[in-house]
Amino acid sequence: MNSIDVSVDFSFQGKHYTPVITIELDSFTQQKEPTSFHRLIANQHEIDCYSYLYEVMESSAIFYGNPQGLAVEHTQNDKFDLDGYVKQSRENEVLEALLQIAQKEMSISDFTDNQSLKNALLQAYKLGGS
Questions:
Q1: Residues 50, 79, 38, CA angle at the centre, nearest 5°?
Q2: 3-state secondary structure of 17
Q3: pLDDT at residue 81, as a whole number
Q4: What is the C-alpha separation between 3 and 62, in angstroms, rounded?
């Protein structure tokens, strides 16, 4: 599972808040217009998105932790590279589809010993997308 914990640390009217949520990244990135992390945190912690509390939270930095799966490679020093994650995730999906074709047509179980075939299939895929 590809997931990451997202949190915000802020104070409002003398009270300290540190709401945390876990985001399942595969379903999150499949949304046509993904909801902002701040709004997701607010929704799960019942913070009204039209309140001053939300405005303070929204102006606070987001921290990322406990990455799982592919998210590990894109998390460093409480920062998460969502664009890098999405790009690599999509590349992995394409490679998996290409491997299924290679398995069906050529009985190849992985591309480890077939790097040139992998490259040829990727180039053909990219040509089809042009």
A1: 10
A2: strand
A3: 95
A4: 15
Amino acid making up residue 40: L
- Find all residues with CB under 8 Å of 12, minimum gap 6, and list them: 52, 53, 56, 57
Tell me what pLDDT residue 128 has: 80
User: Mean pLDDT by 10-residue block, N- to C-terminus, for the chain (130 residues)?
Assistant: 96 97 94 90 96 97 96 93 93 89 87 85 80
Please return the burial class of 125, using the count of CB atoms within 10 Å of its CB with bins 0-12, 13-18 and 19+: middle
Cα distances from 13 to residues 17, 50, 53, in angstroms, run: 11, 16, 9
pLDDT of residue 112: 84
pTM over 0.85: no
2-38 burial by CB neighbour count: b if 16+ within 10 A, else e?
A: bbbbbbbebebeeeebebebebebeebeeeeeeeebb
Instruction: Please give the structure tokens belonging to residue 33.
Output: 């217009």
Using alpha carbons, select from 68, 6, 15 the residue that is nearest to residue 38. 6
